[in-house]
C-alpha cells in the first residue's frame, strides 16, 4: 500500500507540474525564464537583449548628451534593439546559407583603406572639413593596444557592427541586383502616367442614406470580411481595456502644508554654507549647480531677479510647474563668452587617480619648461583631439563638463591648469578668450505639490471600494453609479509604456497581457496622483483576426456596401430606357459632372477622393457608351467616356526603366526584411519581461 500510495502521489504531483507548465506557456524540458523571443527557431535570451539595450542606451546618452532616459526613450531604445536582433538573426541565416563573408583584408579596407566605411569617416572626421582625418585615425589605431579594456571592447563592438552591416549590404545587393524592369512594364507605366481620359459621371453618394436606415445582416459582414481578409493580419498581439481614474490631487490643506515646508527650507537655505549639499539633500530634482548666461536659467522670473541681485540672495518660494521652488544666487561675475583651449587627457582608469595627477603635474612642468604641448598631447592624451595636438577649438558655456568649463572660463589667457572630471585628469591650456557678459550660478530647491498620505488614503479607499464592487459583467454599470468618465486604451501592444491619459502605464499593460478577456485589474494601479482600475475588453491575437475582432472596425465599410447595393439598383432603374448620361442623372435626381484629363496613375476625383474602381473601369471602357452602375468609395456611379488623349510614343525606354527600377530599389530594403521576418515565424515574449 505504501508503494501504491507513493506512486499515486507522484503521478498527482507530475500532473500538477505539467498543468502549471501548460498554463504558463513554458516547457517541462527546458528553462524558458530567460527566453525573450524566437526567430526561425533561434532563441533570443533576455540576458543578451539586456546587454544590447545597455550598449544602445549608453550610445544614445553619449550622442544626445542626456543623463537618465525617460520611459518613452527607454521604450524606443528597447524596440530598436529588438528589431536589430530580429534583423540580425533573420539575415544571418540567409548570409550563412549563401556563404557570404567579410574577410580580414576587406575589414582592414573598411577601416583604413582608400574608401573607408562612412562610419569610420564620421567617427574620425575633421570638424572643420568633415573629411576623414587620417592622422587622427592612425594615432588611435597605434594607441589601441595600450588603451583601457572598456575602449577596446567598444572598438570591437564597433567593428562587429560594421561587419554585420556590410554583410547585410551584400545580401541586399544580391537580391536587388536580380530585380529587372522590362520594356513592356516601362511602356505600361508610361501609358498610365500620360494617357488622359475625358468623361462625365453621375453619382449617388452614400451619405444620401442615413446610417440608421441601414441594417447590415451577418451575411453582409461575412461577405466583406471574406473579401478583405488579407487586410486583417495582425503583426503582433494587441489588447484593449477600459479604465477609470480616481484623482488624488493635493487638497487645499496639502498645498498649505507644502508651502509651509517650502518657507522653512527657504529660511535654512539663506544660512547654509554648503549650497550644493543643501540642494542634494532637500531638492526633489537633483542637478549640478553651474554658471549660466541670462536666458539659460529655465525660468523668466529668475532671469529678471538673479542677474541684478547680490551674492546669497534667496528668491521664493514661488510656484512653477507643480512645485514650490526656492532659488539662491551662489555667485555671479563677468566672464568671457567663449574660450579657445587645448587639453591633454590622462586616463585614470588604467593607472589610478593619484598616478594620473602625478603624470599631469610632470607634463605641466615640461610645458612650463618649453616642451611642445601639441607633441605631448599626441603622445599622452587618450582623447580624440590628440591627433590635432589637443586642440578643442572655441566653445561657449554648456559645451563641456562643469569642472573643465569652470577652469577654462575662470582662468585667463595663457594659463595652464590641471583639473579632474569623470573622464580623467585634464591639462588645459587657455589659448584665447573672447567677449564678456555676466553669468550667474543659481542653486534651486524644488518641493513638489503632492497629496498628503491622508488624501491618498481617502482616494485609494474609494478606488479599492470600486474594485471590490466589480464582477466580470458590471464594469460599465458601476462606472455610471460613481459618475466618473470611462477611458479606453485601444489596441495596446505588449511593450507599450504609456496609454492615452496615463504616461507611465507599464505595470498596467503588463497586467493586461496576463489577464483574460472580461477580467478587471487585480489591484488598484497607482501612477502619480492617478489611482486606476481597468477592465480588459478585447484580445486581438497575432495573425488573421476573426470577424468578431474586426466587426466594429469594418462597420462603416459594410454600411457603405449595403448602401451601394441600394444605390446601384436605383441607378440601374435610371439607366432603363436612357440613352444619355444627362437622362440618367435627371431620373436619379442628381447632376452630371465632367472630368477632363484624368490619368490612371492618379485616380482622384476633384473635390472628392481616390476612386480606384471607377477610374479603372473608365480606362477599360469604349467611348460614348453608358456604363453599368459602379459601387465606389464615396458612392454609386454611372459614367460615359467621351475620349482618350494618347501620349506621344515613348522614345526613351531606358530612362523609363531606370525610373521604375529606382522606385523598386527604394522599397526593396524594407520589403526584403519584412518578407524574411514573416517567413521566420517570429515569436515575441517581451510583454512578460519589460
UniProtKB/TrEMBL annotation:
Entry-linked PANTHER family: PEPTIDYL-PROLYL CIS-TRANS ISOMERASE D, PERIPLASMIC CHAPERONE PPID
Chain ranges of the PpiC domain: 336-432
Range of residues in the leader sequence: none
Membrane topology: Single-pass type II membrane protein
Source species: Mucilaginibacter gotjawali
Name listed for the protein in its UniProt record: Periplasmic chaperone PpiD
Compartments where located: Cell inner membrane
GO cellular component: plasma membrane
Source superkingdom: Bacteria
Record carries keyword Cell membrane: yes
Source lineage: Bacteria, Pseudomonadati, Bacteroidota, Sphingobacteriia, Sphingobacteriales
Primary location group: membrane
Protein family: Belongs to the PpiD chaperone family.
Keyword terms: Cell inner membrane, Cell membrane, Chaperone, Isomerase, Membrane, Rotamase, Transmembrane, Transmembrane helix
Keyword Cell membrane: yes
InterPro entries named in the record: PPIase_dom_sf, PPIase_PpiC, PPIase_PpiC_CS, PpiD_chaperone, Trigger_fact/SurA_dom_sf
Molecular function terms from GO: peptidyl-prolyl cis-trans isomerase activity
